[in-house]
Design brief:
- This protein is of the alpha/beta class.
- It has 11 helices and 15 strands.
- It has helices at 17-29, 43-52, 62-67, 82-91, 106-119, 133-144, 172-188, 254-259, 264-267, 302-310, 320-339; strands spanning 8-13, 33-39, 57-59, 72-75, 95-98, 123-125, 150-158, 191-200, 206-215, 220-226, 236-240, 243-247, 280-284, 288-292, 343-344.
- The strands form 2 sheets. It has a 9-stranded mixed sheet. A 6-stranded parallel sheet has the order 3-2-1-4-5-6, sandwiched between helices.
- The longest helix is centred in the C-terminal third of the chain and has 20 residues, at 320-339.
Length: 347
């Protein structure tokens, strides 16, 4: 008989939108994890923690969480604090999941990865969008070869918020771009040319970003990230020699489910399932349309895999080195958007 492993004891650092809506519900739903508490000093957010997760503790600092027996943390704080908190947690002997953007630049990302390696601690960027329903469907279509040889990948994270988000995310390039670039690299591999454009808001944050990547494989990725798009475009258009797969309409529904208070624990088998009205299709010209059932989304896969890795079973769900690769491309995109020049990434 196999011995059941003890759940990994987690604390979430920060209880803003990310910590409250995404990390805590997913951790609380994962049998392999125990949500012990939240690191926050805000009285208002402490009250929310008590209401949302009765019995969870609140800590002023990371070292208090360590004293309470925490083994791992999920960092969900403003972007500018991610590297400092990641490095502090590693120094305290904790395994770390860090939300996007993993770091503000590639040098900071590499520093954290080095520290984790030296300390023999697990470190993983929280790239939950690898488990979006529509993205999983794209991966399956590519694996099955149904599109033939893919030559262009178009992907958009576009929303309409004229007032705009605060500074916590660090701008559209780091906020949405972290997911867009990670997905493109996962599908088509390294890139050697980057071109980008952006619009700056009055706040000084970048917005309405366009990124063009040329992969070593020959595929070209065209990525859009915006908080200001009143008419969001196709979520995906993946063009190949045997047809194109498109997804139109709202993004994967797992975020909306969490925001309205649902979770994998409350929805069970219905978690991540998209209605037929939101399925994508393969197009071959104007006349041939083949509807493709969407693979169920699986954000709930991330934390069980991370917990298993902590217990010595398998690898982390997203390797820390992927954060460096993404940061290198984002750094190049920032340089290109600033100078107006295409940036060549040395190999």
């Amino acid at each position: 008989m196999m011995m059941q492993l003890q759940p990994v004891r987690f604390a979430v650092v920060g209880y803003g939108n990310g910590g409250r809506r995404f990390h805590c519900p997913l951790l609380a739903s994962a049998p392999a994890c125990e949500l012990v508490g939240v690191v926050t000093r805000s009285p208002e957010r402490r009250a929310l923690v008590a209401a949302d997760h009765p019995g969870a503790r609140c800590f002023d600092h990371l070292d208090q969480a360590v004293d309470a027996g925490i083994e791992a943390v999920a960092i969900s704080t403003p972007a500018s604090t991610h590297s400092g908190l990641t490095n502090e947690a590693i120094g305290l002997g904790l395994h770390v999941v860090c939300d996007k953007p993993f770091a503000l630049n590639a040098a900071d990302a590499a520093r954290s990865v080095y520290l984790a390696s030296q300390a023999d601690r697990l470190l993983s960027p929280y790239q939950n969008r690898r488990w979006d329903s529509d993205f999983l469907t794209v991966r399956r279509l590519l694996e099955d070869g149904r599109l033939g040889d893919v030559f262009r990948f178009e992907s958009r994270f576009e929303r309409f918020k004229p007032v705009g988000p605060g500074h916590a995310g660090g701008g559209a390039l780091l906020d949405f771009g972290s997911h867009l670039v990670d997905q493109a690299l996962l599908l088509f591999g390294p890139v050697h040319r980057v071109y980008a454009e952006w619009r700056e808001r009055e706040s000084g944050l970048d917005d309405d970003v366009f990124i063009a990547l040329t992969h070593d494989s020959g595929v070209r990725s065209q990525l859009w990230a915006s908080w200001s798009q009143g008419a969001p475009g196709l979520r995906f258009r993946v063009s190949g020699t045997e047809g194109a797969y498109i997804v139109d309409g709202p993004m994967d529904g797992q975020e909306a489910a969490l925001v309205r208070g649902d979770s994998p624990a409350t929805l069970g088998d219905r978690w991540g399932v998209e209605p037929e009205s939101r399925w994508g299709s393969i197009r071959r010209g104007h006349d041939e349309v083949v509807i493709v059932p969407t693979v169920a989304g699986a954000w709930d896969a991330f934390y069980p895999r991370f917990a298993a890795a902590v217990r010595g079973n398998g690898e982390v769900p997203v390797p820390a080195t992927a954060a460096i690769a993404t940061s290198i491309v984002l750094d190049a995109a920032r340089q290109s958007a600033t100078t107006g020049q295409t940036v060549v990434i040395a190999t």
